Amino acid sequence: MTLEQILKPRSIVVVIGAGGVGKTTVAAALGVAAACARLDTALVTVDPSRRLRDALGVTRLGGAPARVGARTLKAAGLDPSLKLSAMMLDVKGAWDTMVADHVLDPVARRRIMENAFYRSLSGRFAGADAYAALEAILRLHQAARFDLEVVDTPPASHAFDFVEGPARLARLLDSHAVRWMLKANSAATTPLALRLAGRAARFVATELERYAGVNAFSSITDFFDAAAGAVDGFTEGMRASAALMRSESVRFVLVTTAEEDRIRLARAIVDSMATERLPLAAIVINRIIDERLLEPIAREARAGGGLMDEMKRLGLAMRAGDSAGRGAAALAGYIEGRRSDATERLGRVRRFAATIPRRIAVAIAPELRVGIRGLAAPARLAGFLESGWDFFRAAERPKTRRGAGRARGSGPGRAKPDAGVSL
């Protein structure tokens, strides 16, 4: 999998990862790379925080895709004509749209909108944002307005809960116990009917209460009574969204960092996604090392030597040539001070990369220099991602193997890093 294949027209790139790994910046960087490849690209964030807005350097993000302005693009060193749009998902609005589509009776629709269980389900349910996002993404994709959609998912303890949550809710809503609840609620002798529903209905009610945070059984049964004609539409939409996530149109990109606990979590996610048959296309190991050190390390990797040898030589050379000034001496001290940590970090990532199936690309991204803000940060990171694929694997493969390639049409609209990695 190359970057060009990941950013394939008429596809969706879903960026997943735990909190604090720079997932939003990587998602924005992939969006920039796609736009620079002359794809009309939409960035969709499900994270209610303002990370994507800050990453793009825009004042606000609405519930519909809006084009990033030419002035913002130009300020980041990008071609002002690039087609890059962004939006922040309105979870409640997406649920209300779903209800409006599936519940045609205005009285029933009002009952649902005012129902305590529905308000909790569409606002606090552990997966409501995921389902609303999948529904919105499905609509956006089917409308074929954009060449590519890049989705920034919310942080989660299990990164692919974004996909699995709606599927669990669909199974719950479509269960036989729910049918019992509907019949029982509409029966003349509701208490007796509910007793006849037995343990299965009570189990479903308990699960729904746990998911939605509402403990009023009557509000749950009233919701299903009002939505009786729409439950099939709800579950069908959920199944369609779940099927889309497992289709050839979707590519998942997992973002992690080089810390030991993050690598361990990434390994577990890779295994779980394989079990769930979710199409993981690439892993981005973010903030692996300071960007000032990445080029000498890459040079050493291309030569086939030890990754840290060049760092040592660089530091010694700078100390020997102290006439270059205090800046060189300070950088040499910095390099020497970080050698131990960098050796451990790079070794850990190298061992991890060796265990990843070859069909999954592995990319590295550096810690960017302090002071790079707004869209300039993802634009710069896009330059590194463009050439940083299979960094560790390339060092171990025959030198005749050619590099992973670049995104189609990239280059003219991109702010290039000072020291890009080209393997």
Task: Describe the protein.
This protein has 2 domains: 1-39 and 47-85 and 254-423, Rossmann fold; 89-247, no CATH class. The protein contains 19 helices and 8 strands. By secondary structure, the chain is of the alpha/beta class. The chain is globular, with a radius of gyration of 25 Å. Helix 9 (161-173) runs antiparallel to helix 13. Strand 6, helix 14 and strand 7 form a beta-alpha-beta unit.
Morphology:
globular
**CATH architecture tag of the largest domain:** 3-Layer(aba) Sandwich
The CATH class label of the largest domain is: Alpha Beta
Task: Describe the sheet with the most strands.
Answer: 8 strands, mixed
Whole-number tally of structural domains: 2
Low-confidence stretches: 397-412, 415-423
* Class derived from helix and strand content: alpha/beta
CATH topology of the largest domain: Rossmann fold
N→C terminal distance:
15 Å
SSE string, helices as H and strands as E: HEHEHEHEHHHHEHHHHHEHEHHHEHH
Total strands: 8
Strand content: 5-15%
So how many helices?
Answer: 19
Task: Using the CA coordinates, give the radius of gyration.
Answer: 25 Å
Mean pLDDT: 75
Strand order of the largest sheet: 3-4-2-5-1-6-7-8
Helix content: 55-70%
